[in-house]
Amino acid sequence: MSELLSGYLDRAALAKELNVCQRTIARYESQPNGLPVTVIGGRRLYKMTSVMAWLEARERRPNPTRARRAA
User: Fold this and answer.
1) Which own/partner pairs from 47-56 qualify as long-range (CB within 8 Å, at least 24 positions apart)?
2) What's the rounded Cα separation, in Å, for the pair 8 and 11?
3) Is 4:45 a contact under the CB 8 Å cutoff?
4) For the chain, what is the mean pLDDT?
5) Is the domain defined by 3-58 classed in CATH 1.10.10.10?
6) What pLDDT is recorded for position 67?
7) Where along the chain do its domains lie?
8) What's the CA gap between 8 and 52, in Å, rounded?
9) Distance (Å, whole) CA 23 – CA 15
10) Percent helix, strand and coil across the chain, each rounded to 5?
11) Cys-Cys crosslink for 45: which of 8, 20, 23, 60, Cβ 3.0 to 4.6 Å?
12) Average pLDDT rounded to a whole number, residues 25-46
């Protein structure tokens, strides 16, 4: 990939990085508030900073009530 697109991954590279199949990446895109994508000349590219922000937005904290019951 060119230097201009150095902060981007294609679908195959992102799938490999996240250890999921490319179809899963496509599903992530189609969800409400889905994975951000840039389309250039029919190529789907994912900006790494946007992917990181999208992942961080999905971070969940453990349910404290459930943790007390398990103990």
Assistant:
1) 47/7, 47/8, 48/7, 48/8, 48/9, 49/7, 51/9, 51/14
2) 10
3) no
4) 89
5) yes
6) 61
7) 3-58
8) 12
9) 9
10) 50, 15, 30
11) 8
12) 94
Q: Which amino acid is at 6?
A: S
CB under 8 Å to 10, separation ≥6 — which residues?
1, 43, 44, 45, 46
Mean pLDDT of 25-52: 95
What does pTM read for this prediction?
Answer: 0.78
Kind and range of the H or E run holding 40: strand 38-40
Q: What's the pLDDT tens digit per position in 47-68?
A: 999 999 999 998 888 777 776 6
